[in-house]
């Protein structure tokens, strides 16, 4: 199952970008044997500004994927539960899983309505660059949990 972390905007060379790329590379390397991956980051640059235009660009970029909206009103997961959810999607035959992060004003109503799951990183507000890195790390952690690596929280 291909996993895409799609986000509005380009970050350029920042420590958060490098961190997210490192986690994505690790997840891809370890996930191959599990039928997970590749894992990639997709930076989306809409032609117009505003949540609706961003939403259209997001939906076009991840068409056909099982859509997970990163949204402050979403559900929170313990890492093991998050891993089990990803494993279940893979086992159910999903071919593509896309996590989406909106722009500065969040996700459009259309994206949130089409999302099959809404995921929150807790009640705090996080900078988009850091949210990408946190999401990438949790995907990597999910892959390692599914691979049977020891998990210190068990």
Strand content range: 15-25%
Helicity level: 40-55%
- How many strand elements? 5
What is the approximate shape? globular
Q: Architecture, CATH level 2? A: 3-Layer(aba) Sandwich
Structural class: alpha/beta
**Widest beta sheet: strand line-up:** 2-1-4-3-5
Biggest sheet: strands, sense, closure? 5 strands, parallel
Instruction: Supply the CATH superfamily name.
Output: SPOUT methyltransferase, trefoil knot domain
CATH class: Alpha Beta
pLDDT < 50 stretches: none
| Gap between N and C termini | 26 Å
Short description, anyone?
With 154 residues, this protein is α/β, with parallel strands linked by helices.
Question: Key terms for this structure?
Answer:
154 residues, 21% strand, Alpha/beta knot
